[in-house]
Description:
Layout: E1 2-5, H1 12-29, H2 33-49, E2 55-58, E3 63-65, E4 70-77, E5 85-92, E6 99-101, E7 106-114, H3 126-129, E8 132-138, E9 143-150, E10 157-159, E11 166-167, E12 172-176, E13 180-187, E14 191-192, E15 199-200, E16 206-209, H4 218-229, H5 233-237
Antiparallel strand pairs: 1-2, 3-16, 4-5, 4-15, 5-13, 6-12, 7-8, 7-11, 8-9, 9-13, 10-12, 14-16
Amino acid sequence: MLWYCRGSMVKEGYYFGLPPLVLGAAALLLRWSIAGVLLLFLAAFIFYFFRDPERIIPADPGAIVAPADGRVVVVTNEENAGRPGKRISIFLAIWNVHVNRSPAGGTITAMQYQPGKFAAAMRESASAHNEQNVITLATDTGEIVFKQIAGLIARRVVCWKKPGDRVARGERIGLVRFGSRADLWLPRDSDLRVKVGDHVKGGSSVLAFWPPRAKSTQPRAQAQVSSQENLSPAEKRT
Length: 238
């Protein structure tokens, strides 16, 4: 089962793209051809950068989807707050879609902004030392953590959500401007489906499966067996 997530361009695209578009048109009218063409090219690139395309969101139970577009650069075992787990890091090149999406459905229980460096997002140290927004999400199975991480060119982390908000799998939650990184931490019992070098799409590529824990009826069944064992033969026949 699948459902669609529609869009065209985030509003930040208009804020950054309209000024060079207007200036470029004015330059062409004044016959400043080179300046006009350069400004129009810049406006076109900005509109392209802030695009927000439709995505097909997987509806498979327990699917954990990519929080961002890009290339998987790290898959490693890593603890989080003392809990063993796995970290997946995605590098967003400047030509990738930069809208970030929730990897699963749940409630945002914590959001922590951490100021830091603006080193190249390809570096492993960026996960720990770059400016970032750390989001903790409570799902039906348990907690997962994902990060919006600024890079060498990206200088602004934007999140449209706040603690207490309910989000759906693949729902738009923010963006990082002009090249960045996204990290996702999952508990160790999750089933990873990606490897280093894979290219993923935010909201639609499945990174792992972590199904909700089924409510077991075993204790109840055992209790019934135990109670039957304590009955007399006559009581068991009735």
